[in-house]
Amino acid sequence: MYSHLEDYIYELYTKIGITKPSDMDMYLIAKLLGVVISYRKRPFRTEKEIVIDKGTIRSEWMMFGHEICHYLRHVGIQLAMNKLFIDLQEYQADYFSYHFCVPTFMLDKLEINCAEDIIKHFDVDYEFALRRLEMYENKQYTRSVSF
Fold first, then answer.
1. Total structural domains in the chain?
2. Could you give the CA distance from residue 67 to residue 115 in angstroms, rounded to a whole number?
3. 3-state percent breakdown (helix, strand, coil) of the chain, nearest 5
4. How far apart are alpha carbons 109 and 105 in whole angstroms?
5. What is the distance between the alpha carbons of residues 29 and 23, in angstroms, rounded to a whole number?
6. Which structural domain range is residue 29 located in?
């Protein structure tokens, strides 16, 4: 059983034809979602634009995962928000990025034994892959336990 977020990401990706790790190209996904990727010193999003900081392909992919959450799931301008609400949105975007960049439905089809396996298939950095593996293993454990 998937969480609401995992279902959302599964439906989002399958709707635009992204079904396996080799399909996951930031520019293609942006195009299919109707957004433009731009580069500036500070990441943010506008109505139809995701702005990220220039970096490695991996860092840009992970940043895109974070910013696309704001685009898809958040409303409002953070400059006018209470700090606690900003913190909540940032936490949600961070969590979203793990599932967006390394979707559970794709992990389920692969043999994943370590963080390096995630890096090989999804091109994220080691710390990100390690945290995502931990999330996935916890989910696997929860699936196997009957309450």
1. 1
2. 23
3. 65, 5, 30
4. 7
5. 9
6. 4-144
Q: Provide the 10 A C-beta neighbour count for residue 45.
A: 19
Taking the complete model, does pTM exceed 0.85, yes or no? yes
Interval 16-40: pLDDT, tens: 999 999 999 999 999 999 999 999 8
In one letter, which amino acid is 29? Answer: I
- What span, in angstroms and rounded, lies between the C-alpha atoms of 139 and 5? 13
Predicted confidence at residue 147, as pLDDT, reads 54
Return the closest-CA partner of residue 58 out of 142, 4, 129, 115: 129
Amino acid at 115: A
With tokens 């710390």, the residue in question is: 127
Rounded mean pLDDT, 66-84: 83
